[in-house]
Amino acid sequence: MGVEESIRRPSKHDELRTSPTPTTVESSPARWRGRSRGLRRPTWPTHLMLVVVVAVLVGPVLYAVLVSTQSNNDLFSFALLPGDRLDDNWDVVWNERQLGRFMLTSTVVSVIIAFGKVVTSLLAGLAFVYFRFPGKWVVFGFVLVTLLMPTEISILALFRQVSDLGWQEAGPWGLPPLGLTVPFFASATGAFLFRQHFANLPADLSEAAQIDGVTPFQFLFKILVPLSWNAIGALLVIQFIYGWNMYLWPLLLQPDDQLVQVGLGGLRNADQGQAYGPLMLGALLASIPPILVFLVLQKPFMRGMAIGRDK
Question: Is residue 261 part of a domain?
Fold first, then answer.
């Protein structure tokens, strides 16, 4: 018998006999699924913890809604049902103390501060990444040091400078005073954010732009800005809330149209004494614009905060 005759093709009977049975292949995943199901931990402790966390976060808001409908007598008697003073509290907050005018002024100031900080931060990030100049790292280190310095340290010197420039008066075109916005255009947080973001972009972008003869501002606004919408959205949310929460500086500057935080402070004595109903209602109304800004820019904010996480 030759070599060719000794090597024969397997018959159909051999293939059926040697092939694994379907039950053996399919039973293994099912068996592992059963074992993993048996090892799975119960989820009710996690759900209970989440319910407690949500109750802690939402509880004060619900209590503020309840107090906004009550009088001081209802509050101190620990009434757990809504009161009948919502219309009176609304009239005090919106008409008598004109909280809506304060909210409008704060909205304009916060929008100007947010966009001003974004522009200066983009320019700072461009300079720290794509420009070479003596002492660049010293300047960047100084910017980082300012992150550790609260605004209150330089508030007296800043107030003197604003007074000398005459920025306490109303701004151009009926805008708020320049002293409320211009001193806060510089942002160490924004400069650091865009410096890190631009440093993670491919270096070929700047080299290709130089070959094409693109100017630095064209490179910034035509190439870098379209690649940085997430970082811009995150910085807009942070700086809008920063401008919205300003209290000490506008209280010291004393403009004609005050900001909302100073207006909320005036609600404490809205009813010839400590009135908690109007104060809670004003606090609820004042929290609406930041929430709306966050909801509109939620996706860019979350993606911008994750910049560099996977790099």
Answer: yes
